[in-house]
Amino acid sequence: MRELTFTLEYEPDANPVMDVLIDNPEVTAHALGSCASRDQLWFVERFSGPPNELDRIEQIRFDDDQKERMTRSTCGATRHHDVLESTPGSRVFYTYLREVHRCDSVVGNAARYLDLGMIFQSYRRDAFHTWRLLIRSEENVDTFFETVDDHLRDNITLHLDRLCEAKGWDIDSLSTVSVTEPQRKALQIAVERGYYESPRETTIEELASELDIPSSTLSYRLRRAEAELANGFIA
Fold first, then answer.
1. For residue 22, what are the CA distances in angstroms to 19, 72, 125, 127, 193?
2. Domain named HTH bat-type: which ranges (predicted)?
3. What gap in Å lies between CA 173 and CA 131, rounded to an integer?
4. What is the pLDDT of residues 187-214, one digit of tens each?
5. Beta carbons of 213 and 219 less than 8 angstroms apart
6. Residue pLDDT, tens place only, 43-70
């Protein structure tokens, strides 16, 4: 099994969903999908972040006038979306595409040129959408890259990474962990201020003062978030 990795870098206004991530670095997304045939594919994508930004992404995902675009041409594939899970801190979407031959996107060209049975993983954060494709052979990889690069919009840049032997499954078990928005903010500021460094660079009391909440409340939020992360990792 071969592993093909690359990244798309988006400028503002290139893609409505990526604009949400560019404006809100705390929003991330993990996806997993595969081709059912040369003309059909599916993927599941989990977005994590503040509820209001997840609402924006859901609105975009179901709005035909705001389709995600990475190519200069319009994707003519037929899309079907469902929400599999909705929590205050995450949103999971299922997407099915047919008539993929009418689309010059990454997944459209992967279905057209690469091995059937291919699995793709992707991760989005800030302006970057990183892809990992697991394929059985290197056949047509050059054609795939050339075609993707030829059709990308001018404000999207393709960065090639590597083509090598697959190195493990590489699914982030913590990407499925849901924490509340107050817990997420508590974790974020704790990490940024060095609370988890050794030795610690700040205290619960200092962090609570910055957040303008009681130290007991902050301590409880961190404990609950840490418990969710630990349970998710073991699971």
1. 5, 21, 8, 5, 23
2. 180-230
3. 17
4. 889 998 999 988 899 999 999 999 999 9
5. no
6. 999 998 899 999 999 999 999 777 788 8
**What dotted CATH number matches 179-234?**
1.10.10
**What pLDDT sits at residue 233?**
65
* Helix, strand, coil share (%) of the chain residues, nearest 5: 35, 30, 30
Q: Write down the pTM of the prediction.
A: 0.73
Q: Does residue 232 surpass a pLDDT of 70?
A: no
DSSP letter assigned to residue 169: -
Q: What is the pLDDT of residues 120-158, one digit of tens each?
A: 999 998 999 999 999 999 999 999 999 999 999 999 999
> What 3-state class would DSSP assign to 108?
helix
DSSP code per residue over 36-58: EETTEEEEEEEEES-HHHHHHHH
Question: If you search the block for the tokens 């798309």, which residue do you land on?
Answer: 8
Q: Are 170 and 30 in contact (CB under 8 A)?
A: no
Asked if 98 and 39 count as a contact pair (C-beta separation under 8 A), the reply is yes
Q: How many CB atoms lie within 10 A of CB 53?
A: 18
Residues 6+ apart with CB under 8 A from 161: 5, 6, 7
